[in-house]
Design goal:
- This protein is an all-alpha fold and 126 residues long.
- The chain has helices at 9-48, 53-84, 102-107, 115-125.
- It has four helices and no strands.
- The longest helix is centred in the first third of the chain and has 40 residues, at 9-48.
- The chain is elongated, with a radius of gyration of 20 Å.
- Bound molecules: zinc ion.
- Residues 93, 95-96, 98, 113-114, 116-117 line the site of zinc ion.
């Protein structure tokens, strides 16, 4: 049975600060990306003046949508971690139900798995 108090109040506070910093950073990068998108559009318009522009433009759209998917995934992970952080289940590995090391959570506050399970998970996903 995992101990729900495996993280102290102070540790949760530290992780919470990391989360807020990460969130602010993601917001900043999203804003930068929005500014960058104007340049992509401008480049896209230039390409429309060239022949065979259709394929190129489709490729750009795919890259753009993949980027924004990644961004919203990051936001979702951070927001979910912020909701979870004060709950008993936070910091418990979803696979082996063992506590995730504080150092790992501090480095990656939205981690769902301990390092061992994450390694297995990543290996399976590829
Ligand atoms: Zn685990």
């Amino acid at each position: 049975m995992p101990n729900p108090n495996h993280l102290t109040k102070v540790q949760r506070g530290i992780i919470s600060n990391v989360l807020q910093t990460r969130y602010a950073e993601s917001e900043r990068q999203a804003a930068l990306r929005m500014a960058g998108q104007t340049q992509v559009e401008w480049a896209g318009e230039r390409m429309h003046n060239e022949p065979h522009e259709a394929n190129q433009s489709d490729g750009d759209m795919e890259v753009e949508s993949a980027l924004s998917d990644m961004q919203s995934e990051a936001f979702k992970g951070l927001t979910a971690a912020m909701d979870r952080i004060h709950g008993a289940a936070y910091g418990i590995c979803v696979d082996c139900k063992e506590p995730i090391a504080f150092e790992r959570l501090r480095a990656q506050p939205d981690a769902l798995r301990c390092l061992a399970c994450e390694t297995i998970f990543e290996a399976r996903r590829v």
